[in-house]
């Protein structure tokens, strides 16, 4: 059994190592994506004008007039003064999605467009770097949902391999913990190969629980409806989510919305207040093919804890379709809600984000040391085969 597990660990690890290393390193960066993006692009994220903001629908209309071929579909409101409104846009019918920006920064007082970009567009300009790394982290920037499915599959293999790797470090002899302890330590004076083994083994054991949680939440975020939610529903009750509620509403050619963004925000706020939610409207986003708005409501756009409440509204009538509030629902609902806060570290705020950033480096280190160990062992196996061939008598 140990031999079989070792083979699983070796080949699964080799198959996913490069992708885990890239995802780990990008994850270390995007744990602070908002702060880094703002630092790199002050011209997009800072406004100096003072006064009352213009109406959201007015700003949306002016923005559509300023930037051709776009239709404003949503807005993110700033947490404090001195920051722009961020409009989200879709291409007009017949226009390629990549041909127009989908994120537009607007001065809320004057209506001036401060800048625009396509979120996730390659590659390494100051304007595109952080959004690109954000998208690359979970999808390798592959088109459609192929990248999300692929990285979700990588997360499944990683989650399984976490357990396989831990089992392989366990001793065969008794007493168990006395003989297991050396696996958690590193020799002070060791050769390069031995140092890599110690880093790989101890580096995987000490934060093992965190690694498993990050892997599991990666499956939840990338394959929620394909894999994670169905599995959770086998164990406990899960309330139908936005996709399940929205699919019967899906149309290929949706009609124009009869409810504007500003009205959607007002109706969402009224529903949230009636439900007793705390906070304010943080944004509104239209999903045109589902003929619905999603209004977010909470204390801050990037909150500590389980996240923000969401209210889904019919874009023709403004009537509520579904309401989700973090911390409420079945055990299954709560388990699903906690996955993103765990994966991002936001569940405990700044300390959690720092920890997740460090864990990204740990994941990359484990991947690289695993490849190094395999390379050394392969070199040894090849040398052993050559020696055996040399020793064989000539026929």
Question: How would you describe the overall organization of this protein?
Answer:
By secondary structure, this protein is an alpha+beta fold. It has a domain of 79 residues. The chain is built from 15 helices and 8 strands. β3 and β4 form a beta hairpin. The chain starts with a helix and ends with a helix.
Strand coverage percent: 5-15%
Low-confidence stretches: none
Strand order of the largest sheet: 4-3-2-1-5-6-7-8
Helix and strand element order: HHHHEEEEHHHHHHHHEEEEHHH
Q: Which structural category fits the helices and strands?
A: alpha+beta
Q: What is the gyration radius calculated from CA atoms? A: 25 Å
Q: What's the β-strand tally?
A: 8
Please describe the biggest sheet, giving its number of strands, its sense, and whether it closes into a barrel. 8 strands, antiparallel
**Basic shape:** elongated
Number of helices: 15
Helix content: 40-55%
Q: What is the overall pLDDT average?
A: 93
Give the termini distance in whole angstroms. 38 Å
Concise summary:
This protein is an alpha+beta fold and 395 residues long.
How would the blueprint of this fold be written?
Elements: H1 2-30, H2 33-40, H3 42-45, H4 56-66, E1 70-76, E2 85-91, E3 103-106, E4 113-117, H5 129-139, H6 146-169, H7 176-180, H8 192-205, H9 208-222, H10 224-235, H11 242-246, H12 261-275, E5 280-287, E6 292-298, E7 309-314, E8 320-324, H13 331-337, H14 339-344, H15 350-391
Antiparallel strand pairs: 1-2, 1-5, 2-3, 3-4, 5-6, 6-7, 7-8
Helix pairs in contact: 1-5, 1-6, 1-15, 2-5, 6-9, 8-15, 9-10
